[in-house]
Amino acid sequence: MIVINVQMIVPANNALLKCVSVLGSLWKKRKNVGVPDSILKRIGVSGYNKPKRTPKHSTKSHVVVAKVDDTIKTIRFGQQGVSGAGKNPSTSKDKARRKSFKARHASNIKRGKLSAAYWADKVKW
Q1: 20 in a domain, yes or no?
Q2: Contact 77, 52 (CB under 8 A)
């Protein structure tokens, strides 16, 4: 981390604008803007908190790069080859499956975007 301590006497507004411009460019260089985006490219998703199907993965059906505040986490979720009951299940068997899933995983769903249960509930159930 680079810390710059600037003390100067500014005679005119023009000089002040130049000083702000220089400090702004230094700030942009410090941020490492492209580093987290390499995670998105490697995983193959279009953005943070946007789930994607992974049909060629051996065990998990979806992947998401979850971001909450400064925490970034790659989460794989869902059993490959099994479909959820969906948002509007038509048969009583699917309604029971949906209700059981939500009851069984309720505490993990409450944990939020950094849990696989949250994403499975949102995408598959």
Answers
A1: no
A2: no
pTM: 0.69
- The residue segments making up the domain with residue 87 are 44-123
91, two tokens: 């048969």
How far, in Å, are 25, 87, 97, 119, 125 from residue 122 at the CA level? 41, 9, 15, 5, 6
CA distance 102 to 109: 8
In a domain, 13, yes or no: no
The answer to whether residue 8 is domain-embedded is: no
User: How many domains in the chain?
Assistant: 1
Confidence of residue 85 (pLDDT cuts 50, 70, 90): confident
Distance between CA atoms of 60 and 41, rounded to whole angstroms?
19
Output the pLDDT for position 31: 46
Structure tokens at 22: 């220089």
